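W.,

You were right to be curious about this one. When I first looked at the sequence I had no strong expectations either way, so I just let the prediction run and decided to look at it fresh. Below is the sequence, 325 residues in total, followed by the output.
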Amino acid sequence: METEPYDLITMGRLGVDLYPLQTGVGLDRVETFRKFLGGSAANVAVASARLGRRTALVSRTGADPFGTYLRRELKGFDVDDRWVTEVPEHPTPVTFCALFPPDDFPLYFYRRPRAPDLEIRAHELDLDAIRAARVLWATGTGLCAEPSRTATLEALRARSGRATTVLDLDWRPMFWTDPAAARPYYAEALRHATVAVGNLDECEVATGEREPEAAARALLATGAVRLAVVKQGPAGVLALAADGTRAEVPPLPVEVVNGLGAGDAFGGALVHGLLAGRDLGTVLRHANAAGAIVAGRLACSSAMPDAAEIAEALAAGTGTLPRKG
């Protein structure tokens, strides 16, 4: 029996991404697609594993060929899939995206009648492993419906007082029947998270604040949060720590191919940097570089960079490297 704790356990969304091989045309005109492992929680686990971290994912798939494909891909990426189980009642989710670089990548989620990853139940969680992990990464999507909501909050509560516990705000309005009701659930989750990560839209949903500095301070004021990371798109990223440490870094320039996986690459590199004990500015620069590299590639999961690629991008001053996937 393995007793070594995981560096990272992520919990949440998992599905198949279908990306077009044609750029600049609507899905009604696309003729060929490529499939990839997708879902924010899964991608963060892959990104961290690519950087040498021991990772695992808590999620669900359908009992179908797409579910088989996803579990095989997780193993191939060195992500432990022991807590990725089948929900026979629901099909594995599929997500299509259209590519209109540099900044328009509309998503079409097929998660009906219900996504299996929303069927994670609290009594199924391995809370001993969750407590022991060096980092837990939970998402706002996990709060959007039961039983996933209760399970997500239970995992976060089990981590209360333990560093590092990350809440990725991960706001997807189409997953909520009543978006106005989301804030109380975010507030409860933030009472148990030590790190909060989100873009300006997500911070506004969680705290009511959109100005970056105010949003970061609002996240720090929610309870246990000791580090607030606010992604500002073209303006870079801002991080404030409860001890007063502040870092703000600009984005790394890149020729954008598909911007959808950049935030997940950022997340995996953020976890890696925090575990490595790097100073906050260095953590953000490396995370930004990881995000830029993935934005310059078609895929998300299979495009996640290793440490050498991140170092190469920082040295070159650009995320446009030879493309993967």
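Here's what jumped out at me. The two ends are 35 Å apart (CA to CA). And, maybe more interesting for your project: DSSP finds ten helices and 13 strands in the chain.

Coffee later to discuss?

I.
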